[in-house]
Amino acid sequence: MNSDLSNYRKVYLKGELEKANVPKVPIDLFQQWFQEAESSETDSETNAMNIASIGLDGYPKSRIVLLKRFTEEGFIFYTNYNSEKGKSINNNPLVCASFFWEQQERQIIIKGKAEKIDEKISDEYFQSRPEGSKLGAWASNQSEVVNNKEVLNEQLASFTKKFKNKDIARPKHWGGYMIKPISIEFWQGRPNRMHDRIRYTLLENMEWKIERLAP
User: Fold this and answer.
1) CA contacts within 13 A on the Cβ side of 145
2) Which of 79, 112, 116, 157 lies at a C-alpha separation of 20 to 30 Å from 177?
3) For helices 149-162 and 131-139, what crossing angle results, to 10°?
């Protein structure tokens, strides 16, 4: 099979990004763009975030996770610490995360270091999850090979029985990471592939250096 996609074309016309008009800190621009994407007429998950890490085999791997909180300090998501991504982050905490919001013709690229968050914050978030999601965190040995789907269904049934009429505590192998950024790049699609790219880089004095990049 040979699928030629050479003629796929799209003209980007929906916005522009001027260095003179961006805020001094990137989280303010992130919040603005996030809210604009969230309010657009779309069924997509605005908080869907692609996160790439370096696996134990030396290869990069990216996958979609859900951003659950963002602050001036960083970006929080949750996962199984024993999963493939958890093991890769434990081995090499340097990661890259990105967002693509098609309706706004925008993307954001975040480079930084992922660190486990305080257990109390993970506990609070876990308790806010639906019961099925809590049970799933116990039942699934994420990323491990299983013989068939029935094995997973049996594990879920077992934990459902175990926690019947009981509070479901957070498993110790499940919790949050915060990506603490060292650089955040904002990309706005423009005509003729002359896209606007503004990059914030964190300096040693904790201030942000703002630069325009060639498209």
Assistant:
1) 1
2) 157
3) 120
3 state SS of 25 = coil
Tens digits of residue pLDDT in 130-165: 999 999 999 999 999 999 999 999 999 999 999 999
Specify the DSSP element, H or E, that contains 29.
helix 26-38
Rounded Cα distance between 139 and 171, Å, is 10
The first and second tokens of residue 121, run together, are 């914050």
Residue 120's contacts (CB-CB under 8 Å, 6 or more residues apart) are: none
pLDDT in tens, 171-215: 999 999 999 999 999 999 999 999 999 999 999 999 999 999 999
In angstroms, rounded to a whole number, what is the distance separating the alpha carbons of residues 15 and 198?
Answer: 14
105, HSE (Cβ side, Cα atoms, 13 Å): 17
Q: State phi, psi for 99 to the nearest 5 degrees.
A: -125, 145
Q: Mind giving me the DSSP string for 86-134?
A: HHHHHH--EEEEEEEEGGGTEEEEEEEEEEEPPHHHHHHHHHHS-HHHH
Q: Which residues are catalytic?
A: 193
Pair of tokens at residue 193: 């592939």
User: Which strand (E) or helix (H) includes residue 159?
Assistant: helix 149-162
Distance in angstroms between the alpha carbons of the first and the last residue of the chain: 32
In one-letter notation, the amino acid at residue 153 is N
